[in-house]
Amino acid sequence: MTNAAVRTLPSLDLVSDRAQARVRARYRAETRFKFYGLFAIGLTGLFILVVLTDIVRKGLPAFTQHQFVLSVRLDPAEIDPNNTKDPAAIRQGDFQALVRNALRSIFPDVKDRIGRRQLDNLLSSGAADRLRADVVADPGLIGQTVKVPVLISERADLYYKNFSTRVLRQAGAGTATPSGTSGEIEIALSSDNFAAVRRTRAELTLTENDPSRLIAINGGLVKLTQIGDTKTAGTVLLPLQSDATAAPGAWQVVTFQTPAANRRVNDREVAWFERLRELGHVESKFNWAFFTSGDSREPELAGIRGALVGSAITLFVTLIICLPLGVAAAIYLEEFAPKNRLTEIIEVNINNLAAVPSIVFGLLGLAVFLNFMGLPRSAPLVGGLVLALLVLPTIIIASRAALKAVPPSIKEAALGVGASHQQAIFHHVLPLAMPGIMTGTIIGMAHALGETAPLLLIGMVAFIVEVPTGISDAATVLPVQIYLWSDLPEISFQAKTAAAIMVLLLFLFVMNGAAIAVRKMFERRW
Amino acid sequence: MRNLTLASALALVAAGTLAAGQASARDQIRVVGSSTVYPFTTTVAEQLGKTGGIKTPVVESTGTGGGMKLFCAGVGVNHPDATNASRRMKKGEFEMCQKNGVKDIVEINIGFDGLTVAQSKQGTPIKLTLAQLLLAVAKEVPGPGGKLIPNPNRNWSDIDKSLPNIKIEVLGPPPTSGTRDSFHELLLEKGAEQIPALVSLKKSDPKAFDRVWKTLREDGAYVEAGENDNVIVAKLEANRNAFGVFGFSFLEENSNKLRGVPLDGVVPEFDQITSGKYPGARRMYVYIKKQHVGVVPGIDKFAAEYVSAKALGEDGYLAKKGLVTLPKKELDEVRKSTTGLTPMTAGPLS
Predict the structure, then answer these.
(1) How far is B111 from chain A (nearest CA, A)?
(2) Which homologous superfamily does the CATH classification assign to the domain defined by A305-522?
(3) For residues A489 and B39, what is the distance between their CA atoms, to the nearest angstrom?
(4) A320 and B49: CB-CB below 8 Å?
(5) Is A161 helix (H, G, I), strand (E, B) or coil?
(6) What stretch of H or E contains B140?
(7) Which chain B residues in 70-109 lie under 8 Å from chain A, judged by CB atoms?
């Protein structure tokens, strides 16, 4: 010390050019560092934005569902022939057939077997579920004709969500004269409407690799197979009311832009879809079923409810096990345990445990909870126990850090006025450490919410239709549902996957929000 | 805090008793096994739950091998009632089952899964022989003198002048996938057997021969695109010069965007697969524990539903989900043995 005091300081150079250059270099370095930081934040923000936009863009279609509004006659012969009004008997009734007949009555010309089957396939296999529930609740409806919304198949829904083809309409030039009203007909045109399509060829045969060209005339629709300059030939898809000559502008040239070979719905189905839309039978509704039903193999019936409830129950089990245990362990280790070799080893191992791959906990769960204790497979109870093991180290570490951060003066003051060690901790230290403990817990729970690997081994990666109602019912969780849906071939499940991710993120936000609220409540400054 | 600890302890005890009560009786069928068969078994399970008057069976996706292990572990309500398999049960697995008391197993051959090579509809149409496919993706190929050399083929035209002059890029499943096993066994092994130099190698050094069709190149020409076949489909849409390897149902579902590549002159189509002409087809199975019939309610119904006309028939709901169903004669036999719950024997297994 004395040495330094007597040593003469080197003269401080602050004004020379070199010194100023040094100062400028330091400022430049600082500016550069700020720029790096901004760049890093900007890049992260950009990635988050890209991911979120992508998910939202893909997931939004899953939140709407198209349905047909049909007038269904509730024929007593089909539902309740003996007039019993017994709900059990009514439930057995063939409601699907009633809905099918209602749709068929809109297209009375469809008489062939293939056509009828195609028409039936526009409806979901769960089309009659809603109607059945309505009638069971109110048997007085039997015998009446009711207007009900019915669920449509995935393909039909995708069509109305514009996944299949664009339909262009153009008023026809000149007059058009059909040679008949059904089957294969010819349509004579007074002017050349298809010069652009034919280019130099005199006559053109359309195949399924070309965009479909159709003529809407006299209330019907004709798919063209041959086009010449004035003479065209084709197949009637929707019957014409008459074979009268249509005046210029009274008929339309319709184009389905995507060739039939490149879409999953054929021309006849597109014609039906468009007709149903014209007649006002199609409506788009918010897809509440997505939030109220369990899993299904039919995309239009599948919902997130089962996984959402499964996640909630599993996390509840996790929380009530690992929060008290974790906090108790942290308090003991931090405040009561003697500092010796043994506690040191325990501490190191808790830290190690936090870094063990999650699949290992699944193996442990399989061996202990399922094989040894005989708990049921796929149950949220076991899932919750396994996840509790997984997050316990995180909570212990976070809680210890929080306890350590409370100023020792608070505990000492409590001890000074005569509180016991335990009273000092439970009455004074713990409440002040609570915000930190909450933060640690929520990080742990968020971790648990996103886990799938350990759940595979205890049977929670499964197809479960029924929404779980208790801790020992078979259940699955949100991330597992996302994984399972993402692997299915049906196109609509891609949208469901993205929608499920949105639900998972929302769940996470709500959970974090709750934790922040709790933290605010406990927070105290000193 | 003490109250919370007490509450959770109580909850644990309650849970334990509840669970113990549950374990002694089970009223829900449990199925494990292959993720390839999962889409079909789940459909059957859902239909059964709707119409069969029992709880909807729980279907887990554990992979064929994992499923067999669980299935063969023993008899009793703690063990699954059925398992899905994307290949036939192996003799070793059958013996393991027998050893653990799983004596009577009913085998249902539910149909075929076609393994397809596909490309974007925007790409140049291409036809491949299995030998050409092997020469495109194998790590080592026979060189001029018949000796094995690292695969020198960069473009398809390097393999055969008739193929287009574009870079070889094949997207396929990773080694953990059951589909990858079939890729090797159904397509590449047969491809290797078409090449004379390799046939003679098989005689002189069977191990080296196996290495050829079992090892894929790692220089970027074969890309492991993940377990999820939808990812491969999405990548093919983006890259019209790439080829993808995945199940037939994915090709069918995306037929508006993708085209199946004919292998050995056979187009991957429904009829070609059932007739056995298409090389990339494999049979899929469901195994049922007969000893659980009567113990867990509905197993006989489950078996009957699986082979019923409305499920496995030509227009059944499984066909709509992309299953390639059995030819009529075979289906009748399967139906007979399944509804009669005839146990299988070790005889035909390998």
Answers:
(1) 17
(2) MetI-like (1.10.3720.10)
(3) 9
(4) no
(5) coil
(6) strand B140-142
(7) 78
B28–A474 C-beta distance less than 8 A: yes
DSSP letter assigned to residue A426: I
- Residue A429 C-beta-side C-alpha neighbours within 13 Å: 30
A262 Cβ under 8 Å from any chain B Cβ? yes
Q: For each of the domains in chain B, give its residue range(s) and CATH number, in order of start.
A: 27-113+283-339 (3.40.190.10), 114-281 (3.40.190.10)
Smallest CA-to-CA distance from B178 within B130, B268, B94, B113 is with B113
CA atoms within 13 A on the CB side of B214: 6
Rounded Cα gap, residues A164 and A510, in angstroms = 37
Q: Which of B61, B100, B116 to mutate to test the interface with A (most CBs of A within 10 A)?
A: B61
Report how far residue A229's alpha carbon sits from residue A510's, in angstroms, rounded to the nearest whole number: 65
B59 phi, psi to nearest 5 deg: -115, 115
Q: What is the rounded radius of gyration, in angstroms, for the C-alpha atoms of chain B? A: 23
CA angle in degrees (0–180, nearest 5) for B227-B120-B246? 25
Q: Are A157 and A128 within 8 A, CB to CB?
A: no
CA atoms within 13 A on the CB side of A504: 26
How many angstroms separate the CA of residue B15 from the nearest CA in chain A? 7
Query: Measured between CB atoms, does B10 come within 8 Å of chain A?
Result: no
Judged by a CB distance cut-off of 8 A, whether residue B3 touches chain A is no
Test A297 with B43 for CB contact under 8 angstroms. Answer: yes
Is A436 within 8 Å of A471 (Cβ atoms)? no
Q: Are B36 and B42 in contact (CB under 8 A)?
A: no
User: Model ipTM?
Assistant: 0.77
Domain ranges of chain A: 62-160, 167-263, 305-522
Distance from CA of A198 to the nearest CA of B (A): 23
The SS3 assignment for B293 reads: strand
Which residue from A222, A213, A214, A212 is spatially nearest to A178, judged by alpha carbons?
A: A222
> Can you tell me the distance from the alpha carbon of B218 to that of B159, in angstroms, rounded to the nearest whole number?
18
CA distance readout (Å), A336 to A161, A340, A351, A400, A431: 64, 12, 19, 12, 18
Local confidence pLDDT in tens for the 526 residues of chain A: 455 556 666 777 778 888 899 999 999 999 999 999 999 999 999 999 999 999 999 999 999 999 999 998 888 877 777 777 777 777 777 888 889 889 999 998 888 878 888 888 899 888 888 888 888 888 888 888 889 999 999 889 999 998 888 899 989 888 999 998 888 899 998 888 888 888 878 788 888 788 999 999 998 999 999 888 888 899 999 999 888 888 888 899 999 988 887 787 889 999 999 999 999 999 999 999 899 999 998 888 999 999 999 999 999 999 999 999 999 999 999 989 888 899 999 999 999 988 899 999 999 999 999 888 888 889 999 999 999 999 999 999 999 999 999 999 999 999 999 999 999 999 999 988 988 898 889 889 998 999 999 998 898 999 999 999 989 899 999 999 999 998 888 888 989 999 999 999 999 999 888 888 888 887 776 5
Chain A positions in Cβ-Cβ contact with residue B58 (cut-off 8 Å): 378, 459, 462-464, 474
For B193, counting Cβ atoms within 10 Å of its Cβ (0-12 exposed, 13-18 middle, 19+ buried), the class is middle
A379: which chain B residues are within 8 Å (Cβ-Cβ)? 19, 22
Reported as half-sphere exposure (CB side, CA atoms, 13 A), residue A475 has a value of 28
Six-digit token string for B269: 């189509």
